[in-house]
């Protein structure tokens, strides 16, 4: 399935960014004489920094939402991401929506938050939020159930009857997964096989006996 990227404009924030500084002034490590990259945090004059985040929402038909309710999805996600992080909506920036090969919704974005709060802590808050407004926009495709047939045939060879047991009837419908995660519903197909009933063998009538008198 093709992806649907969408770029958002960065919200201008007050204050000027400082030059990136290396924490703890530790000596850079080297491996085979080459320096190992060190994570550098860019903290502005107000003590804020940006961290990148990503979330995945369950479901198989999020392309419908992106094609028909993209604006509503952006508003709902921005509002709920701000509530999850306890930051203003203007601090949720660079929002991009994707649909993966399984039809699930992928959201990538950045959050401007206080430097005292680690990026992993922000990610935990985002991942455990219920996102009810976002999930309310999701409507799966209506799938028509497949027609199920049952066959019952019998054949006779000589004086013995051979019967075929009926084939199991299989029905496929969309079911909501029982283990619904914090990011919403996941729909998949399950097969339900009907129990086969025992079939009593048919009785074959014996040929009549005729007495011949000499």
From TrEMBL:
Q: What superkingdom heads the lineage? A: Eukaryota
**Compositionally biased intervals (Polar residues):** 1-12
The record's section on Pfam families has: FAZ1_cons
Q: Where is this region: Disordered?
A: 1-33
Task: Report the residue ranges that make up the Flagellar attachment zone protein 1 conserved domain in this protein.
Answer: 51-141
Task: Quote the protein name from its UniProt record.
Answer: Flagellar attachment zone protein 1 conserved domain-containing protein
